[in-house]
């Protein structure tokens, strides 16, 4: 790694509580405005879930994950990707690839269950749950239900922040009410000093909203802030850890865990919905500590058959700001399922990374 020239930066912390209570809670408009500002400026923020999750609940999930990852390799391989559709199940250390390099982590991926599963079709198999620890499936399915509810709540608040009408929100809601969600349970051993890669390489999420619970490891998750006055460079003066097409000025900042919070970021579908008003943000994991790090990202995504296209509310904002968006071109509509299949269909089996 090269030198790090750090300009202090702090991602906003937003308490989603007012949207978890009555419809007329006085704090709702403030929450919506905060979300809008965070999405415009960062694409990353913390969500305070103190009123939504039980104390100790995420730590229990972390403990179950550690118990699984500590098992012998042959036990973990019993639910390997090859037994299903190439996407659902366990992937070994360095089996996942980002930007052409193997990532130094292992994990289990779960997707929304589908009708008439067929493991010969990409993404259309069945989830593979560890039999041991015995409470693994029960606890993680309960977490999934909570994150699905949270997804709709945050979407509604974002709709208000964009100035959407009730009817426009109902239309948007119909595109996510059967979210083709993904949950990952990831284990990160320390990154070897001589490793030619990252714990997880620099990438943007391609869906809708990511809710990330991470253990108490610091200085691992990093977020790229563009157009900063300072930049991290390697020995030759090049920006470190970025895909070649992303060579812009900026700086990596740490998104360290905050008790009672999850880290939230927007994916590429929000770029389409807002016609580029909101941008999905590069992030990566560089874990050089001595501990074994665990993180649990939940990806709240559009429905599989959702047609994602620029929202009228976003276009209204852009048309009112002619100077800033004079050259703005309209994003083309995409069907989320088609977009997803291009990203992850058999990616592990072919050796091509989901973020390549």
Question: What's the SSE blueprint?
Answer:
Blueprint: E1 13-15, H1 28-41, E2 44-48, H2 57-69, H3 73-76, E3 89-91, E4 97-98, E5 101-102, E6 106-111, H4 136-161, H5 166-173, E7 182-188, E8 200-203, E9 209-214, E10 221-226, E11 250-254, E12 261-266, H6 268-273, E13 283-285, E14 293-300, E15 307-308, H7 312-320, E16 334-335, H8 336-344, H9 347-350
Parallel strand pairs: 1-2
Antiparallel strand pairs: 2-12, 3-6, 4-5, 6-7, 7-14, 8-13, 9-12, 9-14, 10-11, 10-13, 15-16
Helix pairs in contact: 1-4, 4-5
Keywords:
single chain; 356 residues; alpha+beta; Jelly Rolls; eight-stranded mixed β-sheet; four-stranded antiparallel β-sheet; 9 helices
Describe it for me?
The protein has 356 residues and is an alpha+beta fold. The protein has a single domain (31-350), classed as Jelly Rolls (Sandwich). 26% of the residues lie in helices and 20% in strands. It has nine helices and 16 strands. The strands form four sheets. The chain has an eight-stranded mixed beta sheet. A four-stranded antiparallel beta sheet has the order 8-13-10-11, with no helix packed on it. Strands 4-5 form a two-stranded antiparallel ribbon. Helix 1 crosses helix 4 and helix 4 (136-161) packs antiparallel against helix 5. The longest helix has 26 residues, at 136-161. Residues 1-8 and 229-247 have low confidence and may be disordered.
């Amino acid at each position: 790694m090269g030198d790090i020239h750090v300009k202090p930066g702090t991602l906003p912390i937003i308490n989603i509580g007012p949207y978890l209570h009555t419809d007329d809670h006085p704090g709702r408009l403030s929450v919506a405005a905060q979300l809008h500002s965070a999405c415009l400026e960062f694409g990353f923020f913390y969500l305070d879930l103190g009123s939504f999750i039980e104390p100790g609940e995420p730590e229990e999930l972390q403990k179950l994950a550690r118990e699984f990852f500590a098992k012998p390799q042959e036990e973990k391989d019993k639910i390997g990707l090859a037994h299903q559709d190439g996407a659902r199940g366990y992937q070994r250390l360095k089996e996942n690839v980002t930007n052409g390099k193997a990532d130094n982590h292992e994990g289990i991926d779960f997707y929304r269950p589908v009708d008439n599963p067929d493991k010969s079709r990409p993404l259309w198999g069945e989830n593979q749950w560890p039999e041991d620890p015995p409470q693994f499936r029960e606890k993680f399915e309960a977490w999934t239900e909570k994150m699905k509810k949270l997804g709709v709540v945050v979407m509604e608040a974002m709709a208000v922040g964009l100035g959407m009408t009730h009817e426009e929100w109902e239309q948007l809601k119909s595109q996510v009410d059967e979210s083709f969600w993904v949950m990952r349970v990831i284990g990160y051993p320390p990154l070897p000093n001589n490793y030619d890669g990252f714990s997880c390489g620099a990438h943007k999420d391609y869906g809708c909203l990511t809710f990330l619970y991470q253990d108490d490891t610091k200085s691992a998750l990093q977020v790229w802030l563009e157009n900063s006055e300072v930049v991290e460079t390697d020995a030759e003066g090049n920006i470190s850890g970025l895909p070649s097409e992303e060579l812009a000025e900026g700086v990596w900042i740490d998104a360290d865990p905050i008790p009672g919070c999850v880290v939230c970021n927007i994916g590429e579908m929000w770029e389409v919905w807002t016609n580029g008003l909101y941008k999905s943000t590069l992030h990566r994991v560089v874990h050089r500590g001595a501990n074994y790090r665990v993180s649990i990202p939940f990806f709240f995504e559009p429905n599989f058959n959702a047609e994602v296209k620029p929202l009228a509310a976003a276009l209204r904002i852009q048309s009112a700001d002619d100077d800033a968006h004079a050259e703005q071109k309209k994003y083309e509509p995409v069907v989320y399922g088609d977009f997803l299949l291009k990203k992850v269909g058999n990616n592990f089996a072919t050796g091509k990374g989901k973020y390549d």
